[in-house]
Amino acid sequence: MPHYLRLFLLLVAAVVPLAALQFMTQHSLRQDRENEVRNDTLRLLDLLDAEQQRIAAEARQVLATIVESGVPQAGAPDCQPTMDRLRARYPAYLSVEVADREGRVWCATDPVSLGVNLGSIRTFQNALTTGALTTGEYGLRDPNRRPILPFRLAYPAPAGGPGGVVTVLLDARWLEENLGSRPLPPGMEIVIADRQGHAVARLPETPDAIGHPLPTAMLQAMHAARGTRSAAVFDTGGTERMVVSAPLDTGTRESMIAIGIDRDAAMQPVRDAMLFSLALFGGVLLLTCLGAAWGMRQFLRVRERMLETVVDKASVLESTTDAVAELDRSWRIVFVNERARTLLPDSGEAIGRNGRQAFAELMAGESGRTLQQAMESREAVEFETQGLRSGVWFAVRAFPSRKGLALYFRDATDRRRLEDERTLLTRQLEAERSLLTAILDHLPSGLLVAEAPSGRIVKVNDTALRLLGGPPPPVAGCGCDGTRACNGGACFGDGRCPLSRALRQGETVEQEDFPYTRPDGTAMTLSVSATPVRAPDGRVTLAICTLRDVGERKAMELALQRAKEEADEANRAKSKFLAAASHDLRQPMQSMFLFTGILHRFISDEQGQRSLDMLERGLDTLKGLLDSLLDVSRLDAGAVDPRVEPFALNSLLDEIAASYAPILESKKLAFRIVQDRTATVRSDRVLLGRMVRNLLENAVKYTERGAVQIAVRTLDDTAPGGLARIEVSDTGIGIPPDQLTRIFAEFHQINNPERDRARGLGLGLAIVQRLSAILDHPVEVKSQPGRGSVFAITVPLAAVEAPPPPPPTASLFTGGRDAPRALLVDDDAIVLLGLRDMFREWGYEVLIAGSADEAVAKVEADGRTPDVMLVDYRLREGRVGTEAVVRVRAMAGWDMPAMILTGEAGPECETDAAAHGLEVIRKPVTPRQLRRVLDRAMAKQSKRMADSMTGAEGERLPL
């Protein structure tokens, strides 16, 4: 049913009873008003009747008094004055007359009555004859024609018998005099009628009505009511009146009193009240209807908003992460969201069910009693409970109201698990804290912890107390001028003191040594470290300071420093000795190499050639030994300056393989190279080649059967170009695990107890290790005894391709008039002669000199500038070979090719030669190596000359 129809029916149901009640009330009020008017009129009628009887009684009393007083018997002279006096005392409506036996009035209070004859009046005769008090009837009396009521009593004559009659006349004016000054209710009339029903008095006064008979119906009703008052409604002159009358049987029995009241006028207040009530009722009804309409509108709006609120609430409750259920006071479920259904799958269709059954997991046992108590006391509760069947922990909040109970609950199993874990962690942390405290208290180092910014020291362990010789100051910052040893813990205060710096500046101090004097005077050295502890916002909150007594360590450091200095001095002496020894040995060896190379032209028989080959092999071995000693000396002296550049790796490996192929073939060892021939690496070609040669030489020395292999593998890496791994592997004797780190030591060899010099000095791997550090090429080794070893060098690949190496060239000159000229300078005559003969064998015209001055002089004497110079670095009188090169080049006016041939191991030669753009050749050098270097230098010079000629011709073309 629509809401507006419900409201209408509600209004009708409310208004109809109210209207009926209103009409009944108005009817009852009207009846009550009529009864009230009738009763009031009857009371007035009784009062009038009583007043009339009182006046009549008073008249009879006056009559009896006059008769008894003998006034009538006094005669006229005495009677009239008495009457005059009585007239002044009696009311105007009461008059007295004294008549003789014939009825003539001879004495009266009203002079008008004197002389009137009453003898014909029946009541006069009755009073005279009977001697009793006689009441007459109302009648009109001249001269004013007013109605009067006579009371007559005979008086005796002096001689006996009735002497006449005394009459007391009651004028109807008594009604006007008694009530005329009093206001009557609107529409009320009072009428006094005689026995015949003629009006004798009327109030309000209406002279025309006196003497006229009363309405017949009224008169009949008055006669019909014998002995009782009557009340009836009559239509009098078009006006409906309610008339209350007293009949002849009551009162004076000579008159009737009737009081009439206009019914409409009497009921007017009731009608006015009824109209006002009806208007008020109608207004209230109208206002009620309007209010109901407005209320309905507001109700509909509120209801709409409530519906929206309910929908929003339901949406919120559905979307909330909490499970929500609402129960009424009888524990019946009125709402449950989807989350609650998910958490309690056994609840099914919960709406309308008993919550204790649907939510048994939540409301069983102590939980149910808690919720019951919350429902009864209307106090919110919060608790956690575990489902008996599911084992799930629920966090429950209950909010009771007058309508029921709202439950909010969620799955708290994970939180409980986390809390249990947190409790366990707390216990573990407490145990760890206790352990940490125990550790700190037993640390060998002293520990102080100060808080910022106050500097208050909050933790001091026992070791710190023992080191400091007592408790430290309570606050870090006790003062230290930094110019003397701090006392009493002052070194942990202001200024340069670590703890103060960590607190105030956030500085981390690492093992700074401070002199410290304990309170007992003991001097010591403390190593102090201080670290600030920062909050997440970077603010320093704590500083931790550690103390260690480093007196013994300082003594050991001094001893170690002295030992190191002695070892360094010994090492330098060794290096100097090796350098000097290698230089002195290289000079004669260089001569031997040169002359051995020359002998090949002069020995043709097979036996001689075989002996010469053996001699060269021995010289090569000796050269290898000296080169190793020299290399170690140079590396230790820091004289090696790597020249890193991109170059093709395959050319270097092919050259190494070619040089070692005869040896491998002679030992019948299989050999192969596995490589990417396009690989380009960034390194020093000479130094990397030396590393690979040393590794390959080691593999050949310690492999008697099987194979030796060089493999190049490309590695994935984030470095530009990537990395290449050069692996030298063999199937030799292998290296025991305990020797893997010792093999890189100087003069250390495996399986060579007899120190066979043919197997080297044990410097090859030491040189590899030193070159690895210089070039930053890591070296790794893996080995299994009896199965072989693998040495690997990791080299960076170049981002660009290396320029191809120059093709090997034959000697550019073979002698004759156009043979190139070479200037050879060396202070060792044997070496100088060997060089001269070797150069001549190669087709050069040779000038030789033992010093720079001699070289300059011979060039001046010859008149021709040399094409190439080969100069020893260390000459006589402290002169150096670069001086000779500079002077000769200055004479020639151009920079001819020049090379330094030296046995020096120090960096001085390398630096000086590089400053002048000269290549350095280390003694001893084989003729083959020297020839290769010489040919390369001449090829470069020829190319420069060709480029110069081309440029010159290009310049002449425009001409």
TrEMBL record:
Residues bearing the modification 4-aspartylphosphate: 872
Transmembrane segment boundaries: 273-296
Domain Histidine kinase: start-end pairs: 580-799
GO cellular component, one term: plasma membrane
Record keywords: Coiled coil, Kinase, Membrane, Phosphoprotein, Transferase, Transmembrane, Transmembrane helix
Gene3D superfamilies to which the protein is assigned, alphabetical: 1.10.287.130, 3.40.50.2300, Histidine kinase-like ATPase, C-terminal domain, PAS domain
EC numbers for this chain: 2.7.13.3
SMART domains documented for this protein: HATPase_c, HisKA, PAS, REC
Residues annotated as domain PAS: 432-477
Source organism of the structure: Azospirillum brasilense
Reaction(s) this enzyme catalyzes, per UniProt: ATP + protein L-histidine = ADP + protein N-phospho-L-histidine
Single GO MF annotation: histidine phosphotransfer kinase activity
Limits of the Response regulatory domain: 821-938
Source species, domain of life: Bacteria
Annotated coiled-coil segments of the chain: 553-580
Domain PAC: residue ranges: 510-562
Region (Disordered): 940-959
Keyword Transmembrane helix carried by entry: yes
UniProt-recorded name of the protein: histidine kinase
